[in-house]
């Protein structure tokens, strides 16, 4: 969808894709490193979660790290970030669906309601 509406997509899209790849990779590596520093491999909570095979977020190393840091507001901040990401994804999906419907309507392959034509 972005390539269809970008200016000079052959020039701009490769750099956009590579910058997104590098950002995601960097955040993942830094996040994993931070969790590895806070939660050692021999942590009793982590070993108990692995041995009990607990489902859900309780066995996540990120949740265990938040518990070890004793910052009570941190889980709420993470929940707010996840909720923001969900709303952002939903907004993106609505945008893509509306643009696709408009394109189909302009080609006559969908009802012409989105185009404003009668």
Spell the H/E element sequence.
HHHHH
Helix proportion:
over 70%
Radius of gyration: 22 Å
Low-confidence stretches: none
List keywords for this structure.
118 residues; 5 helices; 0% strand; mainly alpha; single chain
Mind explaining what this structure looks like?
With 118 residues, the protein is mainly α. 72% of the residues lie in helices and 0% in strands. The chain has five helices and no strands. The longest helix has 33 residues. The radius of gyration is 22 Å and the shape is elongated. The two termini are 27 Å apart. The model has no long low-confidence stretch (mean pLDDT 85).
Chart the SSEs and their pairings:
Layout: H1 2-5, H2 9-38, H3 44-52, H4 61-69, H5 74-106
Provide a compact summary of the structure:
It contains 5 helices and no strands. With 118 residues, it is mainly alpha-helical.
């Amino acid at each position: 969808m972005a390539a269809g509406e970008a200016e000079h997509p052959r020039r701009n899209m490769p750099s956009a894709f590579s910058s997104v790849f590098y950002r995601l990779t960097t955040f993942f590596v830094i996040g994993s490193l931070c969790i590895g520093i806070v939660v050692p491999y021999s942590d009793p909570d982590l070993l108990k979660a692995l041995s009990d095979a607990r489902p859900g977020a309780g066995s996540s190393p990120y949740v265990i790290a938040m518990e070890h840091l004793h910052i009570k507001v941190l889980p709420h901040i993470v929940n707010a970030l996840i909720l923001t990401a969900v709303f952002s994804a939903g907004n993106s999906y609505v945008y893509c669906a509306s643009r696709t419907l408009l394109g189909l309507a302009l080609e006559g392959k969908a009802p012409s309601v989105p185009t404003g034509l009668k």
